[in-house]
């Protein structure tokens, strides 16, 4: 039976018009679906490149800061109450500069006691020397016995030993009194202070931390996965974050054996070959290194799409010019490219432009694109 359009009621289109629309919509869906097989038609025009395996050297760029290779925690050798703190964070110090003082009253009393002991020992020594000389004189005229002379000589030896011991005690007391003034013994920059005037400190308690003058390190927190990928060159490029024109080079000097549980990183220290004036302590620097060469395919990022939930590219058969999806293994992304580690053969043709509406088996017309 022939269907006649209902021209009297434009608000109710005929079933024939609705069927046409449905067929057109289904055709459009089939045309734009990348999973549908190609059923013929004019060849699509696409841009292609030839995939070539090459030595790819990925680079790693990390941000860290500049630190001294040698850092020292300075503490008092005697306990006491701090009466004066003479330096602050950021101050540059000399080896003999006094950093802080403790109340040395206890040490001064010990020195006075040692001096008194020495004076007593010296007086006893003088008496022993005089007694010994008398015995030596009397022995020549047989006015004394040999045993008396021997006893005087023994007393003299004991007195000399007492003087020597008392002298050592005085020197030790002077040294202890000198420890009431805190000196670093090295030149450097104060990076931390842990006490204030009036605080009581114990022996060995850190008072200030010093970054010693001399070689510098660029310190980075590196993800554990990168540690297993050694750089292609031992030389690491270092530049200031704020001024990339200030740069130098360095070599890996130390790799921490401990993984930071919170960050999941490992601390790596790069010993700087030279330290430019702008790379002061604490400044942010960027380190860049090229990893060892790897055999990879580098393609424009426009070549990559998703096929059945996996990354893939369109390849073009050399004889039929038909395209097929090819699952690939993605190694990494760069700014403009994708790096593939597997899935292609050297010399294959890959679609990099116009692949959005392609279907498996579709015949294409190729235009060679300029490789990057």
The count of strands amounts to 24
Individual helix count: 4
Mean pLDDT value = 84
Q: What amount of the residues lies in strands?
A: 35-45%
What order do the helices and strands follow?
Answer: HEEEEEEEHHEEEEEHEEEEEEEEEEEE
Largest sheet: 6 strands, mixed
Explain this structure.
The structure is a single chain. The protein has 372 residues and is an alpha+beta fold. A hairpin with a 5-residue loop joins β14 and β15. The chain is rod-shaped and about 145 Å long. The protein has helices at 15-32, 105-140, 146-178, 224-227; strands at 44-50, 53-56, 59-68, 71-75, 80-85, 92-93, 98-102, 181-183, 188-193, 200-201, 206-212, 216-223, 235-240, 247-259, 265-272, 284-290, 294-300, 305-307, 310-316, 323-327, 329-333, 337-342, 349-353, 364-368. The strands form 5 sheets. Strands 1, 18, 19, 20, 23 and 24 form a 6-stranded mixed sheet that branches. Strands 3-12-15-14-13-16 form a 6-stranded antiparallel barrel. The chain has a 4-stranded antiparallel sheet with strand order 2-17-22-21, with no helix packed on it. The protein has 4 helices and 24 strands. α2 (105-140) packs antiparallel against α3.
């Amino acid at each position: 039976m022939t269907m006649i359009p209902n021209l009297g009621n434009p608000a109710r289109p005929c079933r024939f018009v609705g069927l046409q629309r449905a067929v057109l919509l289904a055709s459009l869906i089939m045309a734009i679906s990348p999973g549908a097989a190609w059923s013929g038609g004019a060849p699509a025009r696409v841009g292609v490149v030839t995939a070539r395996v090459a030595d790819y050297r990925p680079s790693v760029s990390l941000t860290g800061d500049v630190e001294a290779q040698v850092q020292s925690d300075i503490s008092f050798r005697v306990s006491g109450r701090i009466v004066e703190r003479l330096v602050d964070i950021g101050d540059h110090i000399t080896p003999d500069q006094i950093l802080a003082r403790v109340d040395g009253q206890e040490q001064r009393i010990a020195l006075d006691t040692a001096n008194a002991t020495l004076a007593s020992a010296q007086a006893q020594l003088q008496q022993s020397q005089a007694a010994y000389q008398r015995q030596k004189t009397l022995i020549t005229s047989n006015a004394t016995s040999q045993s008396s002379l021997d006893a005087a000589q023994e007393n003299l030896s004991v007195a000399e030993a007492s003087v020597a011991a008392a002298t050592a005690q005085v020197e030790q007391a002077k040294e202890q009194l000198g420890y009431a003034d805190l000196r670093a013994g090295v030149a450097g920059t104060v990076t931390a202070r842990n006490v204030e005037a009036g605080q009581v400190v114990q022996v060995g308690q850190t008072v200030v931390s010093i970054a010693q003058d001399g070689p510098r390190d660029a310190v980075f927190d590196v993800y554990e996965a990168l540690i297993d990928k050694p750089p292609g060159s031992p030389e690491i490029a270092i530049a200031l974050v704020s001024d990339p024109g200030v740069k130098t080079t360095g070599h890996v000097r130390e790799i921490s054996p401990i993984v930071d549980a919170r960050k999941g990183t490992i601390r790596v220290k790069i010993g700087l070959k030279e330290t430019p004036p702008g790379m002061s302590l604490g400044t942010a620097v960027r380190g860049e290194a090229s990893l060892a060469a790897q055999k990879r395919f580098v393609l424009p990022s426009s070549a990559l799409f998703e096929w059945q939930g996996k990354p893939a590219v369109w390849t073009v058969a050399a004889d039929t010019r038909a395209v097929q999806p090819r699952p690939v293994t993605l190694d990494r992304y760069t700014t403009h490219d994708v790096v593939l580690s597997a899935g292609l053969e050297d010399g294959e043709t890959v679609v990099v432009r116009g692949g959005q509406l392609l279907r498996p088996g579709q015949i294409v017309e190729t235009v060679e694109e300029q490789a990057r």
